[in-house]
Amino acid sequence: MTGTVRAGRAEPGTGPVSDMDMAEAERRDLAALLATLTPRQWEMPTLCARWRVRDVVAHMISYEDLGPAALAARFLRGRVLWTNQVGVDELASRTPEQLLELLTTHLRPSGLTAGFGGMIGLVDGTIHHQDIRRGLGLPRQIPPQRLHRVLTAVRTNPRLGLPWRIRGLRLQATDLDWSTGKGLLVSGPGEALLLAMAGRRGIATELTGPGRARLAGRIGQ
Q1: Which of 22, 134, 180, 213 is the most buried (most CB within 10 A)?
Q2: Helix, strand or coil for residue 191?
Q3: In whole angstroms, how large is the CA radius of gyration of the chain?
Q4: 3-class secondary structure, 187
């Protein structure tokens, strides 16, 4: 599949950039990648258990047009825990081309993903972008300002299980000025720390420090 979506420009090294602007840039970067994928790549697995590339993309855009009533209905249907899967199932019949079109028409988060000034869309988009890229073996360097913001935003997120997963640990990025927590040290690239914090398996081997084994055990590997 080919397309004309252009990658977003990296954030400037200085000066404030809003979460909403960074979320839009992240989605634009992802759309640029998706436009280059083959049909086979759309069907390949990602770091999200049981979700293919197409499923992750469907999840990311499945909340965009939901009003309060529709959102409540989806949570009820999914019994809260399975709400994300409900959204993926609703878009299961869409082709890769249609999913990409939906993403490109929703580059700026709306609805639920616009929550907290776009922070939800930024965190969700950045983590899932890496889920896709790592699954396909297509690494990238997340713009440092964007990565720093996401690392800071997720560290106390109970929905991702982070307070429990990193309790008693000090996480220290080796490629940017960021750290959090107290306790046994776990260090490594910021992107690897982010995915490990989010519970992605197979990432802890990229980290070092006396707390690495504890973090890996909590992830389940």
Answers
A1: 22
A2: helix
A3: 17
A4: strand
Q: How many residues does the chain have?
A: 221
Q: State the distance between the two ends of the chain, measured CA to CA, in whole angstroms.
A: 35
Structure-block tokens of residue 144:
């440092």
Residue 177 backbone phi and psi in degrees, to 5: -85, 85
Q: What are phi and psi of 180, to 5 degrees?
A: -160, 150
Inter-helix orientation angle 119-136/53-61, to 10° = 170
Express each pLDDT in 49-78 by its tens digit. 899 999 999 999 988 876 666 556 666 665
Q: For Cα atoms 38, 43, 189, give the angle at the middle one, nearest 5 degrees.
A: 85
Q: Do 109 and 20 meet the contact criterion of CB atoms below 8 Å apart?
A: yes
Instruction: Give dist(CA 170, CA 189) in Å, integer.
Output: 14
Query: pLDDT of 164-194, one tens digit each?
Result: 899 999 999 999 999 999 999 999 999 999 9
146, 126 in Cβ contact below 8 A?
Answer: yes
The two structure tokens encoding residue 130: 């890496």
Helix (H, G, I), strand (E, B) or coil at 80: coil
* DSSP codes, 3-69: --PPPPPPPPSSS---HHHHHHHHHHHHHHHHTT--HHHHTSB-SSTT-BHHHHHHHHHTTTT--HH
pTM (two decimals): 0.87
